[in-house]
Amino acid sequence: MSLLVNADTLTASRNWDFRLAKNGAASFLCEMYNGNTLESAGISAIFNRIQYIDMGHWKAAKEKERNYAEQEFYAFFLGWLLSFKGKITNLPSPLNISGTYFQPFVWRMLAAKEGIAVKDYDSTPEPEADKDRIINRPRQKVYITGDVISGYLPGMPAVARLLKLSQSVQCNFLEMQFEKINKHWHFDTADSFPAEFHTSAKCMEFLYRYFDHAIKESNGVNMWHTQRTAS
Amino acid sequence: MVLICGIPSEPPVSLLCKALDSLQEPYLILNQRLFKGSSVQLSITGGVLEGTLTYNHSNYSLSAFTGIYIRFIDEASLPELKGFAAGSPELKEYQHFQNSLIEYMEVAECRVVNPYSKMGSNNSKPYQVQIAAEYGFLIPETIITNNPALVKEFASSYPGLIFKSISGVRSIVKKMEDSDWERIHKIKNCPVQFQHQIQGYDVRVHVIGELTVATRIITSNTDYRYINDVNAEYTILEPFSLQPEISEKCVSLSKALGLNFSGIDLRITEDGEVYCFEINPCPGYSYYEKNTSQEISAILAEYLSNHNNYHQRLLGMK
């Protein structure tokens, strides 16, 4: 069975019971208002697309209290998702619930450290935005899903290096963006929250396999559509 | 040369400066309040990083620093930024400067205390303690719930119950009192973290690279940081000799979190069990140093300047 839940549903749940034993062993039970339950023993995989917590039921509260509650839920979801020992893409990071987050400059240097050819960068005065709009070079998105790579084109940096980069930031689901400059592909940036991965057949095939075909039938909706993340 | 980013009068910053003075190691103090006109230029050319800090009308190559210590206060508390609306040029100038510096620290080759991306773990206590458990520490039995009945059931299995925030906000540990039980129904809209109260004494371990400095804390209170002299409450701090294997675990845990400098809060029970409560990624170590005369700032200064003393300490020669 598969279940699609969003941050609204989770934060408004009737009953949350998340426990940590003294050795760190975790268990959880969540009973939602629609009658669905999430239980640690009953979940084998999580496709983690929680990026932002918008708590509808706190809208009437004072701003200070709402902000506090939002931070508490954020902290709670970090701990809860980290406790999950089954398949999960991606594990939460303190920077972002759905995986790590960096600015392009940091991504490029992390990539350069792995021996990947990266696009030049200059922080002054405004990072290259205008220049890029004019030049309009060929771009390509590459998806790393576990140890499978899709969207890869000849002339790109070695696959092993790309996989090493995704491992170094503990992302098993990562989009990398490349730009062709002077006939060579250069790494531009990466995103642990890929938005258009459903356009890559290989990426989708891997995810279906990874989650044992369960998620695509979730609640009768096509959850691969990116609009689901905004609902 | 060491780069120190913060407010010079703030005790952890001023202690570090004094320690570097004692070592006669050069340092640049980047006063957060004097950011006006400062900038950080970063470039990558052919995969090679170059960075320049402009501060107080001088330029510094970022690669010249052996270590960077950052202890910036929240921009909302900076008097120089008071009254500027979001999106104003003044605020943008500051944010661009701060963000560039933070981005550089993420990828700098020198010793950084600490990269910002690694400091976020302190924003979630259940996140942190699970990692602590992976490194061999015990953690308090915990329930996070919005169900009062479950709290009562959890409390009934153990003599003492405390509650504290899940995040790093309003992070004060409190013992459950009768008045708290009277308002327990209020948790239904937002889960609250409750823990069994562990009996024992507190030990704060400062991890500096591979070295540790431990301080024992004896207190009359649930949270030793908040005492009231009027009520005869007390907190006594004294140097503590940590068992080598606990020290090693602390170093491993700090490394696992990507922290070169951390303050780990432990509680040791009568039976010798060691519980980890949390890991502070930007410890206000001056409180401990001033009360015990322990050499935390000295070791931190040696670490950041890559001073020979640090290596001698590692070898047990100092």
Descriptive notes:
Chain A is an alpha+beta fold. In chain A, 29% of the residues lie in helices and 22% in strands. Chain A is built from seven helices and ten strands. Chain A has helices at residues 7-11, 63-83, 104-113, 129-135, 159-168, 201-210, 227-230, and strands at residues 15-20, 26-31, 37-39, 45-47, 87-89, 121-122, 139-145, 148-150, 173-181, 184-191. In chain A, the strands form three sheets. In chain A, strands 8-7-9-10 form a four-stranded antiparallel sheet, with helices on both faces. In chain A, strands 1-2-3 form a three-stranded antiparallel sheet, with no helix packed on it. Chain A has a two-stranded parallel sheet with strand order 4-5. Chain A is globular and about 55 Å long. The model of chain A is unreliable at 220-231 (pLDDT under 50). Chain B contains ten helices and 16 strands. In chain B, strand 12 and strand 13 form a beta hairpin. The mean pLDDT of chain B is 94. In chain B, helix 1 (11-23) crosses helix 9 (296-304). In chain B, 42% of the residues are buried. Chain B has 318 residues and is an alpha+beta fold. Strand 1 of chain A pairs antiparallel with strand 8 of chain B, so a sheet runs across the interface.
